[in-house]
Each structure stands twice: as C-alpha cells, then as structure tokens.
Amino acid sequence: MRKTRKNWRARCSGQTPILTAICAGLLLAGCAVDPVFAESVPLNCMILPGEEIASILMTNSLANDAACIASCKFATGKFNNNPQITCAKPVPAGKEVEMCRLTSGGDRFVKLTEGHAECTKLPAIE
Predict the structure, then answer these.
(1) Which domain holds residue 9?
(2) Mean predicted lDDT score pLDDT of the chain
C-alpha cells in the first residue's frame, strides 16, 4: 500500500519524543534534496522506408551526460490503432542517438501524431 505524507505525519504524531524527532528529521531531509528538473531536447520520430518500422532519434543538448526518455505516437491505416513507443537510456552530452525502434505489428504507419523527449543531468559519481 502506498504511504502518503499525511500518513507519515499521522504515524509520527503521538510517538515518544525521540521517534517524533526522528520522523521530523526524515521529513526535513527529504525536503532538503535539490529538485531534479528534466529539460526538453530535440527529437526526431521517423517512419522508416517500408512504413512498418519507426525509429526515435534524439539529441542530448545538455552540457552533461544525461538520463533521457523519449516517446512517439503514430497513426496507422487501421482504425483506432495508434502505437506508441517510449524508451529511456543514458545519452552522452551533445550526442544524437537512436533511442529505440517500434514495429507496427503488420499495419503501415501513416503519420506521427505526437512526440516528446527530455533529459535529466546524471548526478556526479564521487
């Protein structure tokens, strides 16, 4: 079962002063962590020749190596068949890479309907 912040407060109240202090410290430590922001990056969702395979190319435009995620959705010639591909992997700074490929399952891709990619700087390993 997923625990919410409200549940944690409820669990921390009414405890011994030491447990209450530990709970409060853990909550504050969680708030002190710098937030991580993803940045949109250039994306190219392509339908390859033959129209049965799609490819995602994206560029990590950040100055650092990053964890990137890309998603593309396509329309096919079949009613209500809109395959979507989502993939993630680390990408070196300034590099364009093929993230992944998607097969249409026998239907031909007609057009790209939506696409998005973003990268988050990888933390420095010490």
Answers:
(1) 1-33
(2) 79
Bridge partners (DSSP) listed for residue 86: 71
Please give the tally of structural domains in the chain: 2
Task: Give the integer Cα–Cα distance in Å for 19 and 39.
Answer: 39
Tell me the pLDDT tens digit for each residue of 43-54. 999 999 999 999
The structure tokens listed for 71 are 């998603």
Give CA–CA dist 99/73, Å, rounded. Answer: 14
22 in the same domain as 61: no
Is 66 domain-assigned?
yes
Grouping H, G, I as helix, E, B as strand and the rest as coil, residue 30 is helix
Residue 126 within a domain? no
What pLDDT was estimated at residue 105?
Answer: 82
Produce one character per residue of 30-55: b if its CB has 16 or more CB atoms within 10 Å, e if not: eeeeeeeeeeebebbbebeeeebebb
